Amino acid sequence: MLIRKLSYIFVRNYSYNMKPTDSELAILTILWNDGPSTVRHVNEKLNKGRRVGYTNTLKMMQLMLEKGILSRNESARSHIYTSSINPETVKKDFLSHMIDTVFDGKTSNLLVHALGNYKPTDEELAEIKSIIDKLDNDGNSTANG
To answer: Which residues contact 35 (CB under 8 A, 6 or more apart)?
Structure first.
C-alpha cells in the first residue's frame, strides 16, 4: 500500500515518462473522455471495438493502479477509477519519442510526412497556418526583444 501511494505521489508530482501499452492507452482514453468510471463501464466501452473479458479489464486496471497510472475511489460499492496522468503529458511524451526515433529528431520530417500522406481539411490547414504564424511571431519577438 505504501509503495502504491508513493508511486501515485511520484506520478502526480513529476511528469509521466513511462510509455503506456496499447491496452493501457485504450483504458486511459476512455477515462479521459468519459471521466471517472467503473470497471464495468470501461469494459463495455472496450467491447465496442473488440471482445474483452471483464476480468481482463479488471486485472489491467488493477495493474495500472499499482503502477500509479490510475487512482481508485473505494468509498462506494463499485470502485471508481480515474486517470492519474494528464492526456497532454502522454501525447507530448509519445510525440517526442516518435520524432526522436522515427523522424531523426526533426519536427519538419514529421510534418512533411504527415502532410504528404494525408490531405488536411481546410480547417486543419488554417489551424496549422495559425500555429506557424504564432511560432514565427514568438521567434521574431524573442529575436527583437
So the answer is: 82
**Which three three-digit cell numbers place residue 64?**
495500472
**How far does the chain reach from its first CA to its final CA, in angstroms?**
52
pTM: 0.69
Considering only CA atoms, which of 82, 80, 94, 75 is closest in space to residue 17? 94
- Within 13 Å of residue 50, how many CA atoms lie on the same side as its CB? 6
Instruction: Give all strands (DSSP E) within 9-129, no chain letters.
Output: 70-73, 80-83
Cβ-proximal residues to 88 (8 Å cutoff; 6+ apart), any chain = none
Instruction: Report the Cα 105 to chain-centroid distance in Å.
Output: 21
Residues whose CB is less than 8 angstroms from the CB of residue 79 and which lie 6 or more positions away in sequence, other chains included = 38, 39, 72, 73
74-113 pLDDT, tens digit per residue, is: 998 899 999 999 999 888 988 898 899 999 999 888 888 8
Residue 37, φ and ψ in degrees, nearest 5: -145, 160
Backbone angles phi, psi at 28, to 5 degrees: -60, -40
Q: Is the C-alpha dihedral spanning 110, 116, 120, 124 positive or negative?
A: positive
